[in-house]
């Protein structure tokens, strides 16, 4: 599967707060938050779903993967989304292992499996 997505009973704001706390515990920083609903409405487009995109990074892991294969930079930073889907809050991400598999580099798959597992832990703690 391309993604890892979970549903939660928390509202968007609670899920985001919980996600940010769990990311800090795993030494991932939020580099950027993008509120898609706000941006589309700002541009005059009708979009009423809450949809937040987070770009997250652990600098030590980024250095490690880039030292191994600079092409991994095409997949950095990692993205996590928090959004509403038919009244339910969901938290998800594209799996780093799915993305990095495009490089056909076994060592990179091992690196990204560790990162993926840690991000899944963050998501699971947030639900």
Question: What does this entry look like structurally?
Answer:
The protein has 127 residues and is an alpha+beta fold. The chain has one domain: TATA-Binding Protein (2-Layer Sandwich). 45% of the residues lie in helices and 28% in strands. It has helices at residues 12-25, 36-42, 59-68, 96-100, 106-126; strands spanning 3-8, 29-35, 51-57, 78-85, 88-94. The protein has a five-stranded antiparallel sheet with strand order 1-5-4-3-2. The longest helix is centred in the last third of the chain and has 21 residues, at 106-126. It is globular, with a radius of gyration of 15 Å.
Topology, please?
Elements lengths: L2 E6 L3 H14 L3 E7 H7 L8 E7 L1 H10 L9 E8 L2 E7 L1 H5 L5 H21 L1
Antiparallel strand pairs: 1-5, 2-3, 3-4, 4-5
Write a brief structural summary:
This protein has about 130 residues and is of the alpha+beta class. The protein contains 5 helices and 5 strands.
Pick out its properties.
5-stranded antiparallel beta sheet; alpha+beta; TATA-Binding Protein; 5 helices; 5 strands; 127 residues
């Amino acid at each position: 599967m391309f993604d890892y997505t979970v549903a939660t009973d928390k509202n968007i704001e609670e899920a985001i707060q919980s996600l940010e706390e769990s990311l800090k515990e795993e030494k991932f920083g939020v580099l950027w938050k993008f509120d898609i609903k706000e941006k589309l409405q700002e541009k005059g487009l009708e979009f009423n779903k809450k949809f937040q995109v987070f770009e997250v990074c652990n600098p030590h892991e980024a250095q490690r993967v880039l030292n191994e294969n600079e092409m991994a930079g095409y997949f950095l930073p990692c993205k996590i989304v928090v959004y509403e889907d038919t009244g339910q809050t969901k938290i998800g991400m594209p799996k780093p292992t799915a993305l990095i598999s495009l490089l056909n580099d076994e060592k990179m798959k091992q690196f990204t499996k560790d990162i993926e597992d840690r991000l899944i832990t963050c998501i699971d703690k947030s639900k």
